[in-house]
Amino acid sequence: MEGYDYKKHSPLGLNQDRLGYDQIRLLKLHPGSGTMDLRCTLIIRAASTPRYADDPEPGLILKVAEPYDALSYYWGPKRGGFFIEILAGSEAHRVAITPNLEAALRQLRSEQTYRLLWVDALCIDQEDENEKSSQIGKMSQIYNGAEHVRVWLGVEEGDSAKAMEFVKKCLDLDDFDRLVRDSFASKEWAALSALMRRPWFNRRWIIQEIALAKRATLHCGKDSVPWREFADVISLLERNQYEIRQLFRESTAFRNHPDYFGDLTELGAVRLVSAAENLFRKSEDGRIMEKLLRHPNREIRSMLYCGWRMTPVQPQGMLG
After folding, report:
1. Is the pLDDT of residue 297 over 50?
2. CA pair distance 250, 241, nearest whole angstrom
3. pTM of the prediction?
4. Domain Heterokaryon incompatibility spans what residues (predicted)?
């Protein structure tokens, strides 16, 4: 890009870009399309936390002047060749990012307008331990303060598009009765099973990112579905698991295997839906009426900051 002095390091280490205690950094994603380079500007914004007269424990809601979306995603393995350009004055800093984050930003990028996002890998100086500690302590506020939480499950693979469409189909309750009895639907249930096993569902921080969100949407490739609709379908799946097992028992395509789904209670997607429903109740303006921080169980309280654990044994491969 003409007119910029290109640098190979992140601008976050510069003194003028240090965050104060009551500040957060936001990513202003520049418009673009297709294979155009990803470009952004990092901006620092003051964050205020309003108090409510009926709230004995204020501090869970954060307000920033401009509305922003928060990205929830699985970092994924690092691999060379994936970058974003961070523009700072006359300089352009080319910063390496993971392939999964690159795919998420490309999908969320607008063709016409800037998009304001909070993305942990870029909005927190990963080399500054003090900043990391301070900002991680604000993550519950950041996700609750976002206008929208965008969950990136990953690129389209296999039957993921079929699974996302199937979620919408399941919400028609008349159609749902047929779907749990029609053997031809077994392939769609299998696609949903694969979607529920995406790495994002086993991340440590998702309980706060989802349960505290005013509004959340799951994105997989070009497809999207509101979190609320996905959660409703998972609840329906739990209640009708016997009938669905029968579908697989009768399906030659799946070798008449009734346990194709395995133990539903061990799936991260099922545990997340259950936890989000049971731990929080929200008012219409998004305020948390029942807080994890006031839960009598110390382990449950610690989930908000130390990762979630719904079973006595931490699942293998738990991802940050």
Report:
1. no
2. 14
3. 0.82
4. 68-209
